[in-house]
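queue> pop job 88
queue> type: inverse folding (structure -> sequence)
queue> payload:
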């Protein structure tokens, strides 16, 4: 009986961890993200698409934008691992317009 309960609790905890791990963005490598952004995103952003750089949005706006990557208009145009995308997010977020050091990319 109590074993059943602890099993249920463990399962619930595991589910919460799995879900939060899948959706939590942040804590990535911003230096790598900058490189990955230049490599994967700059080809369009800055020429054929809007000139996006970290300072284009606030940290809250970047969070909202990356909360569901399938809602980013061009997400069908790239295949990037979640880890790499998290590095890109970290770069954009950490140098956002309301961050301590806003960055344009050039
Ligand atoms: C094949 C061209 C192309 C590539 C590559 C590309 N994008 Fe886009 N992206 C677009 C277009 C077109 C739009 C929609 C119109 C616009 O914003 O200019 C867009 C829109 C966006 C938006 C929404 C714009 C806004 O102001 O909210 C974000 C965020 C975005 N892209 C991020 C990225 C990221 C991150 C990458 C790299 C992983 C990337 N894009 C790579 C073409 C591209």
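queue> result:
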């Amino acid at each position: 009986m109590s074993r059943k309960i602890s099993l249920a609790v463990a399962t619930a905890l595991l589910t919460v961890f799995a879900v939060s791990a899948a959706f939590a963005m942040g804590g990535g490598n911003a230096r790598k993200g900058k490189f990955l952004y230049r490599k994967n995103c700059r080809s369009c952003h800055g020429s054929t698409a809007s000139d996006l750089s970290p300072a284009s949005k606030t940290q809250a706006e970047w969070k909202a934008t990356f909360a569901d990557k399938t809602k980013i208009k061009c997400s069908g145009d790239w295949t990037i691992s979640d880890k790499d995308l998290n590095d890109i997010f970290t770069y954009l977020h950490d140098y956002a317009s309301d961050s301590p050091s806003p960055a344009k990319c050039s």
